[in-house]
Amino acid sequence: MDETIPLLELSDAEYCAEVLQLPVDKSEVELDRELVAKANALGLEATLPLVSSYERDTSMAVSDSGESTSQERTFSTASDGSASASLTPHSSIFGPPSPDPAKLDAAPTPSKNLSFSPYEKYLAQDGPMLDPSRSRKSSTAGGESSAQSIFSVSTRRSLSSFRSRMKLRKKPPRAFGPALSCLSCRKDVGKSALLQNLPCGHVFCADCLRIMVEQATMDETKMPPRCCMPVPAANIQAILETAAQEAFLKAVVQFNTPWESRMFCSNASCGEFIPHRKHVDPGAPFSVACRKCHTRVCSICRGEAHPVGEDCPEDWEVETAPRVGDRPGRKRCYKCRGLVECRRGSTPLTCACKAQFCSVCGGVWDRAVGCPNVCNGEKELGRRRDSDEEARPAEGGAPDDEEAERRSAQHPAIRGLQLEQDQAMRRFCEFMAKMKTSMEMRQWRQKTSLAVKETQQVEGLTDKHGKATAQLEDSQITEEMELRSTLEQSERSIKVRIRHMEAYCDGLGRNPGGLEMPPRVVTEQNLRDLGHQYNLRDDMERQHQARINMMRDRQSKRMEELLERQKAELDRLADQQQSERDELEGTFKREEGTVDGVFEARRSRFTARWNLAIEVLCKELGDGDGVKYALVSAPSWPNAGKADGESTENGT
Prior knowledge:
The protein is mainly α. Among the domains are: about 195-255, no CATH class; about 260-375, no CATH class; about 410-505 and about 525-625, no CATH class. Strand 5 and strand 6 (about 295-300) form a beta hairpin. About 50% of the residues lie in helices and about 5% in strands. The protein has helices at about 10-20, 30-40, 70-75, 115-125, 130-145, 155-170, 205-220, 235-240, 240-255, 315-320, 380-390, 395-410, 410-505, 525-625, 645-650; strands at about 195, 205, 265, 275, 285-290, 295-300, 330, 340, 350, 355. Strands 1-2 form a two-stranded antiparallel sheet. The protein has a two-stranded antiparallel ribbon with strand order 3-4. The longest helix has about 100 residues, at about 525-625. Residues about 50-110, about 130-155, about 390-395 and about 640-650 have low confidence and may be disordered. Keywords: Coiled coil, Metal-binding, Repeat, Transferase, Ubl conjugation pathway, Zinc, Zinc-finger.
């Protein structure tokens, strides 16, 4: 399998060097961990979104989606994952999940070596396959157990019986006769290699067995495909192409899932089956994403996924629980699906199964970075500001706030931090515009290369067709010339024959040999033969012209067939080129979506990092000076439409 090449526009090393301006031996993860550790040391509860590789599995066939548990029968996306699983910013706060850049180019081309383990598990649940050789061995072993031991009787007869039984055990299973006809269509096949031998002893041709597998793919009642016993995975893998194998394995995973646990895409135009995954989305553990249209579906109500932090309205156990402040009094565990009581100010919540999750949004809690949805980010910062304003006395609150804001606005450290953040935002916008321009140029080069390739293909095929047409015309001209030559030779032969026969018949009653020779006798048969030759000569021109016309009709038909084949080849080439263009356009759209998703996630991390840095600096200054510093606002990002063109102007 060819190794996939990641997108150059998403290089983390270049991003860290140009935008974050980090040294070579330091990553963005280390930068965030240092900031979080610094905030925790000051007594601030802070989290930052985790930097991840945006991995998203795109192969349904090789996943372990066929496994279903009792928990899945109640909630079809029950996870056996742990809180230490790799966190990815796939929640709605970061936008839609971004595909893996390294696997982007390989998405349309599936693997040629697909694992049939889901089908084997399905057969194991359906019932053990019968092995004729195994059954014969077991019956032989049963016969041996009832036989008399050779050590009890020391006779030649018992020894010979032991040897015969040993030969029977070593003897390979009896093979069926070399049947060279399909059991279904009864067509004779010239080579036995073209037939598929099933464990029951019957043989099928590849076409009939393929039809059987396709019917099982479409109809659950015919799954697994069987003759007398289920068809083994090796036979199915031998006759199906990669796309058909994927469709069959998808059907196996779907049919192996109980009806009450099956989940389908809520998009009316999609309706794709969503298999069970072993690991949940840390940001939204109760929602799953459709791999076809990327629509997120709630695993409880089977409808469209709810916003982050909002419980499913159909989860009545959570909805009917008494509330603790502005939050529900119970939260459902993402792992065991049990209920955990919420206490005021408790973040995170710990279930009896040792799973930890956020008490606000229910996201999987990570010990290093906390909540994956950054619940302690901008919203928590605004909540702290509101709580500080409410706790402050009404009569002295306004002057203190104004003094804290003035103190923060005039402090050189805070102003320097704001200047650094403005410069970082300008670098980010310039880098994003640069990467998008680079991606557009690369895509333009790919389009140009594809256009040149298509032109060469059309010119080559047209040249090939022209040569074939000219060759056929030359052969037809040569054929007509040979036919005319043959007809002329036939005409000359008839004329010579008539001249000789006329000379013979003109000597009637004469004696050309003298008196010694008998007189020449011209019979009536000679005269009839001469008349027949006259008829052939008179009708010769018409017959020759008819043969020439028949030959020209055949030649015209061959030319029409050749032109039709050439037109069909051009049509197939045009369809192939259109398919390649559509595939390239789809790849470009996926690349653009990936780049937008990655930069949106980076922008969200930037915002969370800026807010936390401002809070840490204000806390340090307040602890050092003994006075309060108001939290200033982080730089605001330019609009999406102006991010590329006006990034430099906004920064300056």
